[in-house]
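Supplementary notes for students who missed Thursday's class. We covered one full example, reproduced here. Read the sequence, then the structure, then the short commentary at the end.
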Amino acid sequence: MAALWLRSRLRVVPAIPPPVHSNEEVTAWFCEVVVPTRDVWVAEADGAVVGMMVLDDDWVDQLYVDPDWTGRGAGSRLITLAKQQRPEGLRLWTFQANEGARRFYERNGFVPTGMTDGDNEERAPDVRYEWRGPTPDWTHT
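Structure (token representation):
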């Protein structure tokens, strides 16, 4: 998962900033924090991890797809799974400059609800997105 995260992040630089932590630090974070304390899913193809998603309560904490698999539906399947797991709603952050991710989330029903001027480790402006679960179908009987 850490290797996929690093590969995905590095592929879109300079559209988004490069990681601020070393490969070893990222790997340790996945092993010591992410996997034991969060809900984690992976998408596999031919025995390889091609996508991964991490949920932390109602936050999509991480969602990355291998650059060679982008556009093949792995991300959409993972976000559908997230909606099933958290039907009341989801939130996430992405970099404002990550236009591909922003289009993806908006196609999947997320709406921007806030922006920062770079209040994160990378010091890059980001945008908060939210998806609210389906509205109940109220019918009068």
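Commentary. The domain at 2-132 is CATH 3.40.630.30 (Aminopeptidase). The mean pLDDT is 93. If anything here is unclear, bring it to office hours.
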